[in-house]
Amino acid sequence: QVQLVESGGGLVQPGGSLRLSCAASGFTFSNSAMSWYRQAPGKARELVAFISSSGVYTDIPESVKGRFTISRDNAKRTVYLQMNRLKPEDTAPYFCKSETYAYWGQGTQVTVSS
Length: 114
Fold this sequence. Notes:
Strands 2, 4, 5, 6, 9, 10 and 11 form a seven-stranded mixed sheet that branches. The protein starts with a strand and ends with a strand. The protein is globular. The protein is mainly beta and about 110 residues long. The chain has strands at about 5, 10, 20-25, 35-40, 45-50, 60, 70-75, 80-85, 90-100, 105, 110. The chain is built from no helices and eleven strands.
């Protein structure tokens, strides 16, 4: 059974940090490129980070570059999203995705508010 389980979301003040985790099971995680997306209410789903299967290659869009970092631990079957200097406009549910197998997690809510 394929599972992607996100955790680490919550309420944080502007300027704060969060680290999201996505634990994978049921497929060959080390073969899968992984991504993080978010989708704020009324907005299109947005890619915020991508990492290759080995972790050597990452891609962060300009909208969050310099604030978000993606990493993975294949031994732990987990991908991470480190988010720093958070802004209210970062508020959204965040989802991880296996790009290789097109599996999605259920999401974890991030709320940035004072």
